[in-house]
Write a structure and sequence with these properties.
5 helices, signal
């Protein structure tokens, strides 16, 4: 009985890790991911990235969400239990590039509990409206 239970659990491991990572281009799922990232510069009047991105003329191509499991972590930057949201974006227009030299492409965030940590200059600028990303 014990051997059967262990073999069933081992067989389920690849299936469970497949659900730990999700890529989507579905508009509803993208919006659900974007509303989790606040815009911290309250002077702009944007609550989250779902509002800010269209206002700066950037479109989301797709979003990838990864839940970091034990053994996949890379301390101190990525810890087990973290969630990584990668937002794949269109190229910013020249006005945006004049404000902050971002390349677009990808904005990555680590969500650790209630803390949201931007991982790229683009992610930092979209969240804070500041261009002084230190990495």
């Amino acid at each position: 009985m014990k051997a059967i239970l262990i073999s069933l659990l081992l067989a389920a491991l690849p299936i469970s890790s497949a659900y730990a990572n999700e890529s989507t281009s579905d508009a509803k799922k993208i919006k659900l991911a974007l509303v989790r990232i606040p815009v911290t510069d309250k002077d702009l009047g944007y609550k989250d990235l779902s509002v800010r991105l269209p206002k700066v003329g950037m479109a989301v191509e797709f979003v990838k969400i990864t839940k970091v499991a034990k053994g996949e972590d890379e301390p101190p930057h990525i810890l087990a239990g973290d969630e990584i949201i990668d937002i794949f974006l269109s190229e910013p227009n020249q006005i945006v590039k004049a404000i902050c030299p971002i390349s677009g492409g990808q904005a990555s965030y680590v969500i650790r509990g209630k803390k949201i940590i931007p991982q790229t200059r683009t992610a930092y600028w979209l969240m804070t409206n500041k261009c002084d990303y230190k990495g």
